[in-house]
Amino acid sequence: MTLEQTSLDQQQSLITHSDQLPDFFLTAQAEAAAQWDSLELPIIERMRYKKWPLFTQTITSTRTRQPANPLDDVTLDLLSNDEVAARIIHYGNETYLDYIAQDLTDKGVIIQDLFTALVDHPALVQKHLFSTLAPLEDKINAYHTAYMNGGLFIYIPKNVEIKLPIETVLVQDSRDELAFNKHILIVSEQNSQLTYLERSATVGDHANSATLLTEVVASAGAQVKFVAMDALGESTCAFVRRHGITYDDANIEWAAAAMNQGNTILDTYTELKGQGSASNTNIISIANGKQTQMVNTGLLNVGHHSAANIFQHGVILDQARLSFNGIGQIVKDAKGADAQQESRLMMLSQESRGDTNPILYIDEFEVTAGHAASVGQVDPEQLYYLMSRGLSQTDAEYLLIRGFLGQVIQTIPSMQIRQQMVEMIDNKLQLFHPGNL
């Protein structure tokens, strides 16, 4: 693969050091820098994380990365071989536009480093940036705004349908102390369509924090598929926050594999503002070792006949803790709205801990809503059946886990990414059953 030298070095273009960037952003960043440490952490039900080291304040590095080519072995492992509409690589503080199809540019599609977009398209970015994640809403948002050191802006004009996915690779450089605070802004205008694929990983084992914040704006009739494979390293303490808003007849489909090795909070939230809008959130997670993972998923039905679904399945190994919050809220006058959720956890260790927390807030009569939740061990009858057919206990457990997580995996549009998700599952299980898979 040949890298096009569209390289944007964030150490040269950080907004804190640039007079070219618009006043609205510089003001937001200055206010966040002054207030973040005094703000409260966001409240996550059944989760205490006040002592987590989430606030690394080093955002530039003097290290010259070796090798200089961002397409090193780690990055190549993350890249798909599928045909894509565009590919962007974030490596530490650097952003590379590897490829963008010419027809996208001709149609007015914008795919840029966020800081570059702030300079080139200030009014357009200002219209949408922070529309779902207010900088001073809480300590996470404020810190992230103050110490942001990378990002991406994707803009799809009205009536433009992108058939191939837009692929982003986020590689955290943890060979030194360096925060990893990336902000992704995706704007899909009226009746447009796109699929966004995101994968993350860590190089090095220095203890660092990561705040990965994403905003998705789906205008009337827009169709957005957001697929993420989170695989940050064991020494990374992460807060991953993805918030979206849907207008009339728009749809956001979230699919995520929460496979980070370190302590992580994954917060996904969608406001269904428009009439007839919809959103499905599909998440799988495996927690292993001594890590703690919290998957916090919320849906807010505002529009008439809006429909929202949460589907979360997770597996817990070793001494890990994994928790699922499913929060559905139907506001007053959201007539005909529907909110459904399912959260299930499978525990393979007596020392593991898991809990599911289904929550429904309903302020309207003419609606439908429901929830299902469970925490339990592998079904002994299913295990016995498979072992009676000659499988070892390890292989039988593996098949049951694959089936348990498979419903989410099948929602992924790329066969190669589905296979990579399976490999990530295998890697986690290999640590639990070394040498047996």
UniProtKB/TrEMBL annotation:
It holds the Pfam family SUFBD_core. InterPro entries: Fe-S_cluster_assembly_SufBD, SUF_FeS_clus_asmbl_SufBD_core, SUF_FeS_clus_asmbl_SufBD_sf, SUF_FeS_clus_asmbl_SufD, SufBD_N. GO terms for biological process: iron-sulfur cluster assembly. SUPFAM superfamilies: Stabilizer of iron transporter SufD. Coiled coil: none annotated. NCBIfam families: sufD (TIGR01981). Belongs to the iron-sulfur cluster assembly SufBD family. This is Fe-S cluster assembly protein SufD. It comes from Fundicoccus ignavus.
